Amino acid sequence: AWAGLCDTLLADFAHNKRSNFQVFVEGEKACGVALTLSNTSRISLDVYIALGVLYREAGRLDESLEALLQAKKINAESVRVLQELGITYAAAAAAAPDGGDPANYLKESARYFSKAEDSLQAAVALNTGSWSAREELANFYFDTERFAKAVEVYDQVLALNPGVTRALNGKGAALSWLGQ
Length: 180
Hints:
Elements: H1 2-15, H2 21-37, H3 41-57, H4 61-74, H5 79-94, H6 102-126, H7 131-143, H8 147-160, H9 165-177
Helix pairs in contact: 1-2, 1-3, 2-3, 3-4, 3-5, 4-5, 5-6, 5-7, 6-7, 7-8, 7-9, 8-9
């Protein structure tokens, strides 16, 4: 029940564009109780994923990565864990502190971008039929301005599920950037 509440509050927090701090606090509390009471690794996995997403949505990227890495310890072959890790690593790359040193920013962001790509590629490799894992990878390529690669992966998404409008839009935008 606490795991379900954790997940429900996470969805509410994300849906309301992170404007309700009380929902975040309640979600964090529900996740903590669920982890304390959990007697199965499946529940713990789901709660750590929910907690990781909750922290990412709140901009608390270090805590998000910590929770998602705990989930990965429970199941290193979970496509959802790898997808969420990839998304969070990409967010961490974009938010990498430079400490006043541009070279440090480039080094930190490159490290996170590499981990993001590795996680997303692993998610695709584990579930070759998953269009959503491929879509996240295509979005990553688009966001990192690798438009030709993004088009290639968007085409794979559309081959698996022709109705994914986000993939159609992403492909169109990438082709536009490529001048096509």
